Amino acid sequence: MWHFKLNINFYFILLVASMGCSAKNHTTINAKGFVISHSANNESVELSTLAISILKKHTNDHSIIQKYSDEKYRDYKRIHFEVNPDLTHDYCITKTSNTLSIIIKSKHSAIWIIHQLTEDLSKFDSRINADELLPSTVNFKKSNCNTFDFNYRDPHYSTNQIEGNSLIFGNNNVDIDWGLWGHNLSKIIPHNADSSIYAMVNGKRNKNQFSFSSSKLIEIFDEYVRNNFGDGSSHGYHFMIMPQDNQLVCTCDDCKKLGNTEKNATPAVSFFIKEMANRFPHHKFFTSAYHTTQEPPKEFLGKNTGVFLSSINLKKGVNLNKNQPETTRFLENLKKWKDLTENIYLWDYSSNFDDYLTPIPVLYSLQEQLKFYNKHGINGIFLNASGYDYSPFDDLKTFVAGELMKNINSNIDTLIEVYLKKQYPKSHSLLADYYISLERDFAALKKPYNMYGGINEILKTYLNPDDFIVFYDKLASKLKQTDFDEIERKKLDKLYTALSFTRLQIAYNHPFKKYGCVAKKKDGISLKPEISHFLVELKNHFHYDNLSKYKEASGNLNDYIHFWEEIIQQKTYQNLLLLEKPIYVLVGNINGVKYLNNGLPAYENDYHHGWHISYTNTKFKCHTEGFNGKKIIELRFLNNNRHGFYPPSQINFTDGEEKIRTISIGNYDTNINSLIVRVELDFTEHTSIEIEFIRRPYSKSMVGCDEIRILNEL
């Protein structure tokens, strides 16, 4: 009997608890509706009007959202809005039994705070539908005030670039917050502008750079700001004042009087910025510590000025500390700028720019680095990522990165889980489990990642191929289910399409493993049939506007697909050195030697893809027992001058001490992407052969070699 009573009480408690949860999620709170009031200033009136509009969009019963009136709606809950520029915090929530007061410091937070409120109300009132909104991270349950850890917050992912999204996410966006961004001053210059606006270099006007002391240039910029953005009193914008992206500096008399030298443009650029800041006190004007403006100015620039520093030389994916020489140099430079402007923004990085489509875990390390930046006085972040191009989980990263910039102590795993549960209700567990494990595994390695790394480096740092393939296959199975709504299915289809690129990369990089791309045959190798399936999936990229390339530069997916199609059409591949005949590196780089006889052609549009790279003169050794008679040696070299790849100037063939033949490569067509060299040698008396590449005498030149093929005949 005692046990029976205990069980009854236990189940009664569970029943009451479940009823409470049900009421919380599926019935209205104890209010007939909500009345919206506002403080007396115009901005508060606009905020309350916007709130009414947004709230009504999320309910079919518009009667529950009303303007405040003393005489009416006495049984409604009151929500009061105020914009107060003098608020010491970014927002404050005041909660009483019948009134919720929301005060924000800036209109920029308006759309974000209203959507946060709408989503929070939907948890308790079934008449409000916020299924498509972001999870609310604002605490509306009790009175509290919060200050964002960074004033400027711009996670540069494609999700943040969708019209309206940055305001809903509470983020900034270069497209709407900046009147001029980057090295784009030339774009606002009239075609008939006076020549005095251009830099004096070596005694001559040079249109590749500007004279920032020029009164004509100042007036052009003044007119551009005034005509397009006003004086900023109703809405302030940011403007980037940067010299053109080169090392040229104006040394006209006026610029030299300001302090310019042949290598330092900071004095004249600072003069220009201060002039604009004085003319437009409601706008903000920024310079950058970059190229010819790396040296800080001599005096304070002004309250509405700022500087962009860059984290390009700092390690990515790990904690920063003063024991790292590059971090120490960064902090020394930061200290100089802190005395000269109140607005120090950082151009930070959160991507592998040579592979947008392979999932990269960046959030754990981002949090630690944001804490470091915040501690040292940086108050704005432009997080350069995949930009306008799609990358897997970029919607999640937009949300979490934005939240971390508001509150660096946010719980990342919780943010990941609540976001995915809201945005991917049928597949959130699969996505969350994989992505969180990706973050945890990479964090445990304590290794930095390369911002311009290929698949070989990726597999050594942040991607476990076995875990990825399990996830890829589970995602394929999930997509076969029929209980998805159209929006979630489309997002998962896009993710699977992008991940098919990574699946092909893994298959190529480990061709003979269980998940590789080739099968051995007596007369060579051939591609496995599943490669065609992965390729078909990747071809679906054309359904999506922002899924057309896999990296920042020269990463066209159609070209990549065509590369694979050519391999498929080839069917079999011949090489007497294939597989069983290892190639040894006697002198030079041993990494990537597997590419020299794996039977797969290298991709000439990507130096990461299948090329052995020599940074010095390099010598290889190949065993050639049984290769009787004359054979053809075929070598293919990468020609990519932009990245420093050239065919060797000379190739020496020896059998150890005796020179067999020397080939000199003089003039060649520099417009081609690769150069093939064929040499006929008699192997009758040679059981091994050594091949030496002599680099061209250019600074930092490299040699990229594809297969070393030995053929009976062409």
From TrEMBL:
Signal peptide coordinates: 1-23
Organism lineage: Bacteria, Pseudomonadati, Bacteroidota, Flavobacteriia, Flavobacteriales
Alphabetical list of Pfam families matching this protein: DUF4838
Matches recorded under PROSITE patterns: PROKAR_LIPOPROTEIN
Domain of life: Bacteria
Keywords from the UniProt entry: Signal
Name of protein: DUF4838 domain-containing protein
